[in-house]
Every structure is written in structure tokens, then in C-alpha cells.
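Table S2 (text version). Query chain:
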Amino acid sequence: MSNTWLVVGLGNPGPDYSHNRHNIGQMVLDELASRLGGTFKAHKARAQVLEARLGIGGPKLVLAKPLTYMNLSGGPTAGLARFFDIPAANVIAVHDELDIPFNEVRLKLGGGEGGHNGLRDISKALGTKDYHRVRVGVGRPPGRMDAATFVLKDFAAAEKKDLPFLISEAADAVEALITDGLQATQQKFHSSRA
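Corresponding C-alpha cell output:
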């Protein structure tokens, strides 16, 4: 089993999108990069990439922020998995999730994409749905607002106060998934809200 993990933070490129709900995955990767003391560098797979170890002698991490738009996340993800010889089971997609309340983090392996175009493109490019997802809750749109409009908006003022804690919790979940495995991490992060 490979001890290298590819962690992909989903989002859209450029400053106009950087604080949108849809970019929470990239915000989580910025937090992980800060913890690891590294900086992202351009990679030929159309992504910003940071290579580091999780702890001394720990697993190797390849953190990646695709430079493509969300619905084209698969190309960079599959390209990096091939380049670093990482199996799909060691790929973690960190993404926004409408079906989870704001301020909650859930993890799963495989399953459907829940209408998330970034995940759909990754599943297609990897040729499997059997990769890990760290699902960061952004909640449902208010009233009759279209979901696509909602995720392309910045977080509300009240949410922004809690956002650093949510980002930190999601980063903790990524680290725990790699060090402790899926089941133990699910028990820790899912039961804390029960």
C-alpha cells in the first residue's frame, strides 16, 4: 500500500472566487499548507502543488489546488495521481457539501457525487468513485435561491466568525484520515455532533 496521499482542495481559480463557499476545499488546503510550513508551486498537471510529510517520517502528502474551474477538477487530479503513482484509494477530495449543515465535517469513501460537478469530473477522470471525500458543510441556500448561485457567494457575516474553526476542523479531519484511517476518523468527527 502506498504511503503517499494526494489531497485535492476543490474550488475555482482566481481572486474573484477565493472566498466563495465553493472554494472551502482550497481554504482547507491553505490551512494544511500553513501547518506544514510549505508553499504551493505550479505543476504541469495544471495545479498548485505542495509536497510535504505529515510529521517526521510520516506519510508523504501531495496537496493540490487545481488551476482549472471546479467542473474540470478531474484532469489535474488524475494527472497528479499518475505522476506521483498514487492509487485512487489514497486520493482525498476536500469539497463543499450542500447537504451538510454549515460548520460540520463528514467523511466517506466512494458513493455518489450528490450533484457535485467537481466530484463527478474526478470520478470520471480516475475511472472510479472509490476515493475519499472530506465533505465540508456549507448548508442549503436560503429561500428559493439556486444552489449554483449560493455556492458562488461568499460566506455570510455570521458564518465568517465560525469559518476559521470549520476550516481547522476539516484540516484536522484530513490529517486524522491519513493517520488513523476512515472508520476511526468518522467516529471522531461524526459522533461529535450527535
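Notes on Table S2: The beta strands are 4-9, 41-43, 47-53, 60-66, 91-97, 105-109, 132-137. The first strand starts at residue 4 and ends at 9.
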